[in-house]
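Provenance and format

Records in this collection were gathered into a single text stream. Each protein contributes a sequence line and a token line. The two records reproduced below are adjacent in the stream.
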Amino acid sequence: MSAPLFELSGVHVSTTDGTEIVKGVDLVIGAGEVHALMGPNGCGKSTLASALAGNPDYEITDGTVRLNGDDITEWDPDVRAKAGVFLAFQYPQAIPGVSVRNFLQQAVQARTGKDVSTIEIYMALSEWMEKLNMDTAFMDRFLNEGFSGGEKKRNEILQLALLEPEIALLDETDSGLDIDALQVVAKGVQAVREKKDSMGVLAITHYQRLLDHLQPDHVHIMRDGKIVTSGGMELVETVEAEGFDPFVEVA
């Protein structure tokens, strides 16, 4: 039997000052599966995503993280990224002086280990920018500099499309988006999944609207650093109607 695509076993995460935020998370994401992680502000969702991507501000103090059976718990962020761990940031950062085109050409080359020509990256960008309703002029703008919130989120999905990761961690990709932008982003994620149907997705969100588009296979509710219950879209409907109060913290 092959190993799961992405597996967390007893994962604890602390900040660099020793404050424990994630307090023992078990999660298994199979190839091609979409999982949703929901919970109130401050419960540890974004901290978990950052730690899984290797953010040095957080430390996995216990437990293991495996990608296709390989223990990546101690891997550096760039090694994880090359192996196929992708994080779409809640608040994407601007990088002055680096164009979207140049950034993605370097990123794709690092991910694949192959040289990618200027024309190849141009053609790929043009194709996906059309799908994401992005002006192709954006490829020569500095990464996220002066971008609106919706433009930044589209750009995150553009990166997802070109990098074709093994596991995509979407950290509140829907936050701050109007209905039209949300639909574009959600359709973009689905288009990437159609192109690479083995890609797993962990979508972190507060809202039903994104999940209506993604239709997750599994939904998990997080409280105080722990997953307290798992199920299907019925959990999303409960959150929409009653908030997170029905889901109590585990001892």
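Adjacent record:
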Amino acid sequence: MKNFPASEKTVHSIQQGTGAPVILIHGLAASLFDWNELLPELAGAGYAACALDLPGHGQSFKPDDPGEYTLENLFAQVCGWIDTPQLNEPLILVGHSLGGYLAIQYALRRPERVRALVLADPFYTPAQMPFYLQFYYRHPLVDPGIVARLPKWLIRQMVDLTSLSLRNGFALSEEARLQTTADYQRAHPGIFNLLRSTHDLTPCLPAISQPTLVLWGEHDQTLSPASFPKIVEQIPRASGGPIPGAGHVPHQSHAREFNRRVLEFLRSVNISP
């Protein structure tokens, strides 16, 4: 495993394995630990799997100015990290939720750099969010800094209640719920401004030419499950489907099934290590 420690203006990342490069991009208020189950699977299959902490998250740099937390800034920072001499061949991008938005943007703007996409519960239009979230991001009623000041026990209760809201009970393991709690606490409050600067990518989806796998939890309560078949229809070479019993984080709650489908997809499109 390669570990690139964080410092000011540095994006923190870890790498496992060697071979065709796979970049894993987590969602809002998460971290590279989201990919604890998929990283070793990819490495064991002969890929160079690399996960990063997005700026403002985990151990990556966190700008103090809340105004810096825009999607365009975040995209530029991620591009600066991806476009390095060490990553000089076409990539497989794996993105969850907000990470899916960034992966789609990268494929649209730098198509020659992308071999394939894997999108997990991808965010691509504000219309996917429940009405109350759409309203909040346009007219914030609560200071995002409040989240950073919440006690750990309260954040943990919120995480547990979210997990229990799924039909199959505690979908997330104890380890994953502890990590989710820690991720919320480590994130800069400014990240909650990011979704206020998103755009509707729906009109751009037909321009994605790479083979694409879209997977989602059938009980996703963060983004509308009905929105995911639409992205499969819009991207010309897309395939995929729901993961039964899963919510918004199928790569964590149903890792075995999620990983199986990802590796099968990579083999099916002849992206071998």
